[in-house]
Amino acid sequence: MRNRYPGSALGRGEDKPHRPTSGAEYLSFPAADATFWVEADDGTRLPVYALAGPAAAPALLFGHANGFSAGSYAPWLRAMARHARVFAYDARGHGASHWPEGPLDRVFRVDRFATDLAVVAHAVMARCGGTPLAYIGHSLGAAAAIDLEILGRAPGWARLVLFEPPISPPRGSSELAVALRATRPLVEATARRRAGWPSPEALFERLKGSAGFARATDAMLMAHCRAILKPKPDGGFTLACPPAVEAAIYRAHRDARTWDHLGAVTAAIDLVGGDPGLSDPNWISLIIGELARRLPNASLTVLPGAGHLMFFEQPDQCLELVVTLLCAAG
């Protein structure tokens, strides 16, 4: 019988599941070659995971989606490390990060994710001898890069590849109506999400039967389930990103004014969108063409047959696209 819970390879893997014995030992990406920590100005501490790539290869930083973590993409990041020196981090509110107490709408403001990215990027560049980084962002990680450009604090990326940033359209627009129809029930469902699970395998079985992960490969989905659950002292696991935090982040990005400032973004951006022709298209897939038109130096690639979770549905195609873009950047 086929292994129902594959490990790290993009299609099938043999890695043993990560089984930390206490919350203190939890990392979303325990198999990384190295882990170091950075600290934001409000005391938030973020783990940065490093994968050793070829010595002469370009350096690449990866930012994950809301509710995910760096380790959610572990099989893909390991495959990417054959072509680049790869770094990834757990955003505030996710994975092994530590964040300060306070109102959620203050701790998880949109600009916080942007300035966190700047802190991580400069720390990684320092470890790479000042070499400019390529940045790959998915969803929340992609939006953080655009907000950082608007703040004028971006480090000067060697390449900026952003997979479906959730940039909410302006009030009164037809695009906003599309976004709100999708995000309102998403926020409500996220806030009610079950936090406790007996095992990553139990979460895998639940997600595999859901609409959002129906097209995900088993290897990528299992990596995600292992990465986002941290052990509880009394047994079992809980979501490392609490449902209330994930919902607050969705609300923050839904209400942000990023769209109004897109014309000020001068960086060259490679946007990647999902297929708007799917029977269940994501709202970002439906508006990303307009987003690309409003960014002065953006190009757009659409992945046929892919939804918003394209790294999990089409990991090989995403890998090929990123490698091609990195090669084009030299």
Distance between the amino and carboxyl termini: 44 Å
CATH topology value: Rossmann fold
Number of domains: 1
| Class derived from helix and strand content | alpha/beta
CATH superfamily: Alpha/Beta hydrolase fold, catalytic domain
Please bin the fraction of helical residues.
25-40%
CATH class: Alpha Beta
Second-tier CATH architecture = 3-Layer(aba) Sandwich
Report on the structure:
The protein is an alpha/beta fold. The chain has one domain: 3-Layer(aba) Sandwich (Rossmann fold). An 8-stranded mixed sheet has the order 1-2-4-3-5-6-10-11, sandwiched between helices. It is globular, with a radius of gyration of 18 Å. The chain starts with 33 loop residues before the first strand and ends with a helix.
